[in-house]
Amino acid sequence: VPSLCEPLRAAMLSWLLSFAGIGRASAIKNMSKEQREIEALYSDLESAETYTAWLAAAVRLDELENANDFKENPESAYYDHHLIQRRVDVFRKLLADGDIPGIVFRLRVGLTRNFGGVGHPQLYDKTHVGTKRLIEEHQTLLIKMLTVVCNAQESQLPLDKKINFFIEARHALGKTALFLSGGASLGMYHLGVVKSLSEQGVLPRIICGSSAGAVVAAIVAVRTSDELCLMFSTDETPEFVDHDPVGSLKRKIQRLLSTYHLMDVGKLQQSLRSNLERVGDGDITFHEAYERTGVILNITVSPHSDFEAPQLLNYLTSPTVV
């Protein structure tokens, strides 16, 4: 009997090894295909020209890289998930009951940006888009409650009390500002950020800039929403590039050797004036820009020496500065 079973055992072993080999090869093939997709998606992130295209790639990457596991698990050492869960439960009940006074009370005592630690940076660096589902639901419910208060009838919430509530809420929550840092020619990447925020309708009314960021901030802050849309169209995009790269490089080297400066300030001034002339005569003060668009432009100026203080230019501190 053993002699008869031996060939059968060998055949079974061979079949199992073959099956395992096929399974392993299939797994390797699938992993390779998945890895290729991941690499393609990272390329899509880099080359995305719209937020919609970037978002689609980011969402898919979170799926492939198992970042959704982080989102689904409410626990984290970086925020109080028990506190947030209790708040979510209360918010749901208040909205379901249509309890306007209760909603107003809850918003008054807890409308802060970092309640329970939900604003901790490390809650937002584990994924390409989004964070814990619990935090997202918490923020969504806050928006719904604010909307309910805004749309409340006079019989539910008198107009004077509604106005006072939103004034107090604005003071408690503060205003959102966009800060654009320096970075020489890399500062022009700020335009992509501004474009995406503008297209989504969430571009802040307060824009601050330093160095190259100040250039972008100035170009943006003097334009209305419609003019921004036009600016980001193909034929109206701001130009800062020398169309003679060979000659430009030669001039830069000559300037560096003679003046120890690589960039030509005159060229920057010319580019700025060219872009500003599209919305006026090229000369516009901080106050005029504010009156024209309602955007608060803030530009920081570094001190010339250790004995001077940095300056902040805006429509209040320097209204007549061009």
- Mean pLDDT comes to 84
Low-confidence stretches: 1-5
Helicity, as a percent range: 55-70%
List the domain count as a whole number. Answer: 3
Q: Give the radius of gyration.
A: 29 Å
SSE topology string? HHHHHHHEHEHHHHHEE
How much strand? 5-15%
Structural class: mainly alpha
Net shape: globular
Tally of DSSP helical segments: 13
Main beta-sheet annotation: 4 strands, mixed
Q: What is the strand arrangement across the widest sheet?
A: 1-2-3-4
Distance between the termini: 102 Å
Number of strands: 4
Describe the structure.
- The chain has 322 residues and is mainly alpha-helical.
- The chain folds into 3 domains: 60 residues, no CATH class; 93 residues, no CATH class; 138 residues, no CATH class.
- A 4-stranded mixed β-sheet has the order 1-2-3-4.
- Helix 8 links the parallel strand 1 and strand 2.
- Helix 1 runs antiparallel to helix 2 and helix 5 crosses helix 6.
- The chain is globular, with a radius of gyration of 29 Å.
- It starts with a helix and ends in a 9-residue tail after the last strand.
- The N terminus is likely disordered.
- Keywords: Hydrolase, Lipid degradation, Lipid metabolism, Signal.
